[in-house]
Backbone:
């Protein structure tokens, strides 16, 4: 027998879910219709944890239809994604809501203070993802380095050595990492480290355009 309190909660759950679904997918929200592969879910966890945080509405189709989850199996997959296929482990909170006779699980992922959070791909490789609008994107090596560097004290000043001056002199337009390596004629790891350092100090910016990361002067 359904109690009055349970009925009220179900109504509140539905209102809350519909309000979230009305926002659509965006930088901090993603819909997952089915969770059959923990590694795929881990990509979303990694992307949210490495960016601004966010939530996964699991049991909701891309068109906003509430399909619900197969409770036991899918929740197990969710836990696998968060705690087995992410390194270091990501912090995730799972909350269950009920609407239209179906169960939706919301996985809330806060921004991590242990970036980069990497997710294991289908080929067994660990990759860091970031969230750009409504997409999970493999982080550029520069952004990966930036996340690593952000765990260390920044320092008060930016030291302008010859390598940095040479790099900056080439940045008259937005350029890819590969193009900059060719122009500057420095080892790729060195250019990656310099760009990450300059981004952190607010001298260089990055943009994601036409599926490429571009770097330019601020």
Residues:
């Amino acid at each position: 027998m359904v109690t009055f309190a349970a009925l009220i909660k179900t109504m509140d759950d539905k209102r809350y879910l519909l309000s979230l679904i009305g926002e659509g997918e965006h930088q901090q929200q993603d819909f997952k219709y089915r969770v059959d592969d923990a590694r795929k879910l881990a990509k979303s966890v990694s992307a949210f944890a490495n960016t601004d945080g966010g939530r996964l509405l699991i049991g909701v189709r891309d068109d906003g239809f509430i399909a619900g989850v197969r409770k036991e199996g899918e929740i197990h997959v969710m836990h696998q994604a968060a705690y087995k296929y992410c390194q270091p482990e990501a912090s995730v909170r799972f909350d269950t809501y009920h609407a239209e006779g179906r169960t939706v699980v919301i996985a809330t992922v806060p921004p991590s203070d242990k970036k980069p959070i990497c997710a294991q791909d289908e080929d067994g490789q660990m990759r860091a993802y970031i969230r750009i609008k409504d997409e999970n994107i493999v982080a550029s090596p520069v952004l990966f380095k930036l996340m690593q560097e952000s765990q260390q004290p920044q320092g008060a000043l930016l030291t302008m050595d010859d390598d940095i001056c040479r790099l900056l002199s080439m940045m008259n337009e937005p350029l890819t990492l590969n193009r900059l390596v060719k122009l500057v004629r420095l080892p790729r790891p060195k250019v990656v480290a310099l760009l990450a350092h300059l981004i952190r100090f607010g001298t260089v910016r990055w943009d994601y355009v036409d599926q490429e990361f571009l770097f330019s002067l601020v």
